[in-house]
What does this fold into?
Amino acid sequence: MRTLLLASAFLAGLFGSLAAAPTPEPAPSPYRPFCRTLWLFVSPCVEVRTALVVQIQALSQYELVSVNPVHIAANHTSPERPLGEDISFSLSPTVLTNGCRVTATSNSIGFASLLDGGLNYCNLRNLLSATGLSSRPGFMEMTNEWACLGIGLATCKV
It folds into this structure.
């Protein structure tokens, strides 16, 4: 019974936060690699946003484009992909835990191989790992191969 109550509370918090979620971003192009993942944190959104922005500004391959209380936009470039990727984070508070729900996306600019070894996933995951937020208690990540091309092949290096 306790497990059922905890699961219900978790789902209510997850889906309850959908009402406060910002307008969804356009669907990625089926002809370019992309990744969309959902992160849940026990930490408040202001703390998550601050950590992500500080890390984006600290890493040379990332460029901060814009930031507001519910959205972060950035670009990522690398020698392997000079056109780079558009990266964004949509943040919304969760109802029950006072935590933060983040929809993170990375979309390749221009044509690139769909079999890119999970580069878009690694753009997001490496940035998150560098903040230290993913190692905190209560962190949860939800995605799959349909939402994040190449995740099964990803070998991310921080």
In short: The CA atoms of residues 91 and 148 lie 19 Å apart. The helical segments are 2-16, 45-58, 119-131. The beta strands are 34-41, 62-68, 71-78, 81-93, 100-108, 140-142.
